[in-house]
Structure formats: C-alpha cells, structure tokens
Design brief:
Strand order of the largest sheet: 1-2-3-4-7-8-9-11
Distance between the termini: 6 Å
Organism: Kribbella jejuensis
Shape: globular
Helix content: 40-55%
Keywords: Oxidoreductase
CATH architecture: Alpha-Beta Barrel
InterPro entries: F420-G6PD/mer, F420_G6P_DH-rel, Luciferase-like_dom, Luciferase-like_sf
Structural class: alpha/beta
Protein name: G6PDH family F420-dependent oxidoreductase
CATH class: Alpha Beta
Pfam families: Bac_luciferase (PF00296)
CATH topology: TIM Barrel
Number of helices: 13
Number of strands: 11
Largest sheet: 8 strands, parallel, barrel
Radius of gyration: 19 Å
Length: 319
C-alpha cells in the first residue's frame, strides 16, 4: 500500500503547492499528485498554477517522494508530443520519480484553446491516439503518426530518461479502465469501484491502482464539512456535469444548493481517525493500492501532523 497526498492547485498558489509537497515528504507520504488545470472549479478557488512547472520545482526540492499529474488531458489544450516531452523531462529531473496521470479531460480546462469540446466517445478515441503517440515518441528516434483525430509529423523527443515514466490512465467507467489495461501502466480512479479494477485487470493491467480518497480534516466535523462545501462541492455534481461545464461561474450555479451536510456524507470530516478510515476502507476493499488523500479541510499543516501521528499508521494497517 502506498499513501499519497493530493496537491489541490486550484485552492493554493504555486509556491504554496511546492511547500506542501515538501511537507508531504517530511510527513511520510509516498507520493504527491497535482491537478493539471487551466481554470479552477468554483468561485472560492483563486488559483490554477501550471502543473509541470510546479512539479519541476518539487522535484528539485525533494529527494524521494513520488510525483504525478492527477490528471493531464493530453490531446486538446496540449498536443501529446508536448506531453511526451514534458513527462520525459520530469522523469529526468525527478530521477525516475514521476508518473504521468492522463485522462479524457474536462471542458473547464480544454475549451480555452478554441478547439471545441468533443463528445465523450470521441474523447476516448483521442485519448487512445494520444497514448499511442506518447509511447511512439518514448521509443526513441523520429516518428510520424496519422490518426483519425491526431497527427504527428517527423518528431523526436531528444532527452529521454533511462527509466520511462509510468502512465496512469484515469477511468470513470469500464471502457476507460480497459484502455488503462491496454495502453497504460496503472489505473487512476476517484470512486471505490471494483468494476473498474476488474475491467483494468481483464484488459491485461497488472500495475498500480490509484484512487483519490476525499477527506476534510479539521478540529470539528462541522468545520471540516463546511470547508469541503466551499472547496469541493463540485465533486457532488457527478462526472457528466464535471466534464461539461466551461467555467467556475457555471459550477457555482450548478452547486448552489449543495450543503455542508451533503459533503459530510461523502468526505471524512473532522478529527476522528475512525471516520477517515471508514471513508478510505472501501477503496482498499475494491482493490486500490495507491491512495491519494484529498484534504479539503482548512488547515494543511494540521492535516500533515494528523497523518504522521495517527492517520498514516492506521491506513497502512488496512492493507
């Protein structure tokens, strides 16, 4: 079992994100993963730093903790050739500690380049092509690619690490989980769904299985739930909504009736380690072995202390 920490780049500025990663290593986390967004989710969020720049700084400031994007859409806002180059560079700078998390993206971030937002079936086709392009470029030498949606012309990534980064593919359904098994090295999920694990393994996947676990540590349950409402109420909208709305103002409108009590039911809120374990346990039981802890609470420093003294040891016993 590996325990990671989610760096919420929409809620904290780039310098603070780097400091949190340093603190996560000191607190005993095995890895950090940072969201790769252009826009934040809701009005209370006021940040959205460039993920690859922050990860480069984190790589320079840390020595052992794993690094990952959680996750990058590699085919609209970016071309997969750029993602292949960026990930290879991070693989070198981190001395083999980087994992490229990829997914089919959200309109929130991808529409900004004016290339439109395809339907979900097309996005899955584009994700497959993007992964093929990344793998091609990581094989060394010059390559071209002519896909249904994506093209590559006579391109080469010159700086490749001795050990290529693993690719974790995000899945919200069995189709994407099968893609993770076919072309990825790991599965990435946000729900404790064993059907995703099964689809991943049936498609040949035998690597790590990442999942984000929603927590909100605070001195009281009420404070944790209210903090989660302010910063993570968008999560209750469901993926069909999350992937389609274009701006934070739209998410504010879609979630204005979400209450702290709703979040209390979904997140591990407050100071009780048993409640946090109650939220994490279904992920372990579903087969996930890399848990990325989200802390939607108001006190990151207090959460790190809580993890070191209580939560971390208890979580590792779950495995």
């Amino acid at each position: 079992m590996k325990i990671g920490f989610k760096l919420i780049a929409e809620a904290y500025g780039p310098a603070e994100i780097v400091e949190q990663a340093v603190r996560a290593e000191e607190a005993g986390f095995d890895f950090v993963e940072v969201s790769d967004h252009f826009h934040p989710w809701v009005g209370e969020h006021e940040h959205s730093g460039f993920a690859f720049a922050m990860l480069g700084s984190i790589a320079a400031r840390t020595s052992a903790i794993g690094l990952a994007t959680g996750v990058t859409c590699p085919f609209v806002r970016y071309h997969p050739a750029i993602v292949a180059q960026a990930a290879a560079t991070l693989g070198i700078l981190s001395r083999g500690r980087f994992t490229l998390g990829v997914g089919a993206g959200e309109r929130l971030n991808e529409h900004v380049v004016g290339a439109g937002w395809p339907p979900v079936a097309t996005r899955h086709e584009m994700l497959r092509e993007a992964l093929e392009i990344i793998r091609l470029l990581w094989s060394g030498g010059y390559h071209s690619y002519e896909g249904k949606h994506l093209r590559l012309e006579d391109a080469r990534v010159f700086d490749l690490p001795d050990e290529l980064p693993g690719i974790a593919v995000a899945a919200g359904g069995p189709e994407a989980a099968r893609l993770a098994g076919e072309l990825g090295d790991a599965l990435f999920a946000t729900e404790p769904r064993d059907d995703l694990v099964a689809a991943y393994e049936e498609a040949g996947g035998d690597g790590p299985k990442y999942a984000e676990v929603p927590l909100a540590w605070a001195s009281s349950v009420e404070d944790g739930a209210e903090s989660a409402r302010r910063s993570f109420r968008f999560a209750l909208a469901g993926w069909k909504v999350q992937s389609e709305l274009p701006n934070p103002a739209n998410f504010d409108a879609a979630t204005e009736l979400v209450t702290a009590e709703h979040l209390r039911g979904q997140f591990g809120c407050g100071p009780d380690v048993e409640r946090h374990l109650e939220v994490a346990r279904p992920y372990v039981e579903a087969g996930y072995d890399h848990l990325a802890l989200i802390n939607a609470g108001p006190d990151p420093s207090g959460f790190f202390d809580f993890f070191t003294k209580e939560l971390g040891p208890a979580l590792r016993e779950l495995s």
